[in-house]
Amino acid sequence: MTEKLVTIFGGSGFIGRYLVRHLAQKGWRVRVAVRDVQKAAFLKPAGNVGQISLFPASVTDAASVAAAVHGADAVVNLVGVLFERGQRTFDAIHVEGATTVAKAAVAAGVKRLVQMSALGADPQSPSAYARSRDAGEMAVRGIFPGVTIFRPSVVFGTEDGFFNRFGRMAQLSPAIAFFTNSNPHTPAGGGSKFQPVYVGDVVEAIAQSLEGEGHSGKIYELAGPRVYDMREIMNIVNRETQRKRMVWGVPYVIADIAAIFLQFLPTPLLTPDQVKLLKLGSVATGRRPGLAVFGITPTTLEVVVPTYLKRFRPLQQNKRIRAEAR
Ligand SMILES: NC(=O)c1ccc[n+]([C@@H]2O[C@H](COP(=O)([O-])OP(=O)(O)OC[C@H]3O[C@@H](n4cnc5c(N)ncnc54)[C@H](OP(=O)(O)O)[C@@H]3O)[C@@H](O)[C@H]2O)c1
């Protein structure tokens, strides 16, 4: 086994768990820096005995970050938040937190640093999330010029927050809605556009970027093979959950109003800033290199998404499948 050690911040999250497993399979020793070590214990069986260790750290605590990166050859920062709560602001996590990780990486003599960002990172964006992503990138590049930055579109995979949310909606509600600013009965009325990328492709790109200097100082856009509008995505969800729900195009003004109230839920269903992000969609600009540089053929969502949206199908489906199997 190689002696190389990587510290991953955010390793207990959706993308993180795939990255931990993938890097362990490639022979890395993996130190997962998490706020709650017990909650992340499920990660340990992803490697051989002793290959994956859990380390208590928060990107808001510089001393814990310094300890977490001590002795590491590489560091990956996946930490991100989709809504703000108290001191957990976009700036505190995406800018100050990322800065803390980059400074600690420099101080520890780390060779490779990966910073996760997002498509749409832009100082002029109407979304505070997207502006903070840009500011985070700039700050980290100023401290660790060789950092590799990844900007994914919406990421899909078994535990994703995107398709699972719509699958749950199809399970519970008589209609599934998408937001649009045009007439939903016209081809142009399908709502915002997304280019979903498979989590397995994302972690393979990150893993390759940790090897050697070839990806040093680069910014990559990670996107899937096809652009979908929201109506197409809802139709896929409808088909794969076998719920036959009405797919309903709703004006964005409804989202604007709903978000004013929904933002106050303990885990907000929708915030005003998320509505701004939704309106922008998430499609690669093509101005940055992408998965092709890594020799990765992007996985289509039609291959993967049905495997986990199945769980939202009506119960009778399972009974029928069991009956057929007898
Ligand atoms: N998933 C997507 O579609 C997508 C698309 C574009 C960009 N991204 C970006 O990719 C990154 C990973 O996404 P994800 O979907 O895997 O997110 P996720 O499931 O929400 O995971 C986020 C991780 O960050 C950790 N974290 C939060 N605050 C922290 C803190 N103060 N200190 C240390 N760790 C902290 C969380 O750990 P706890 O268990 O301690 O909360 C969790 O492990 C994020 O930066 C996200 O914005 C994701």
Topology:
Elements: E1 5-9, H1 14-25, E2 29-34, E3 52-56, H2 62-69, E4 74-77, H3 90-107, E5 112-116, H4 128-143, E6 148-152, E7 155-156, H5 163-172, E8 175-180, E9 193-194, E10 197-198, H6 199-209, E11 219-222, E12 228-229, H7 230-241, E13 246-251, H8 252-262, H9 272-280, H10 301-309, H11 315-325
Parallel strand pairs: 1-2, 1-4, 2-3, 4-5, 5-6, 6-11, 7-10, 8-13
Antiparallel strand pairs: 9-12
Helix pairs in contact: 1-6, 2-3, 3-4, 5-7, 7-10, 8-9
Bound molecules: NADP nicotinamide-adenine-dinucleotide phosphate.
List its salient traits.
326 residues; alpha/beta; Rossmann fold; 2 domains; 7-stranded parallel sheet; two-stranded parallel ribbon; 11 helices; 39% helix; globular; binds NADP nicotinamide-adenine-dinucleotide phosphate
Quick overview:
By secondary structure, the protein is α/β, with parallel strands linked by helices.
* Poorly predicted residue ranges: none
Overall SS class: alpha/beta
Quote the beta fraction.
Answer: 15-25%
CATH superfamily placement of the largest domain:
NAD(P)-binding Rossmann-like Domain
Major beta sheet, strand line-up: 3-2-1-4-5-6-11
Gross morphology is globular
Q: Quick check: average pLDDT?
A: 95
CATH class of the largest domain: Alpha Beta
State the helicity in percent bands: 25-40%
Q: Characterize the main sheet.
A: 7 strands, parallel
**From N to C, what is the helix and strand string?**
EHEEHEHEHEEHEEEHEEHEHHHH
Number of domains: 2
| Name given to the CATH architecture of the largest domain | 3-Layer(aba) Sandwich
| DSSP helical segment count | 11
Tell me how many strands there are: 13
What value does the Rg take, in angstroms? 20 Å
The CATH topology of the largest domain, please?
Rossmann fold
Any ligands, ions or cofactors bound here, and which? NADP nicotinamide-adenine-dinucleotide phosphate
Straight-line distance between termini: 45 Å
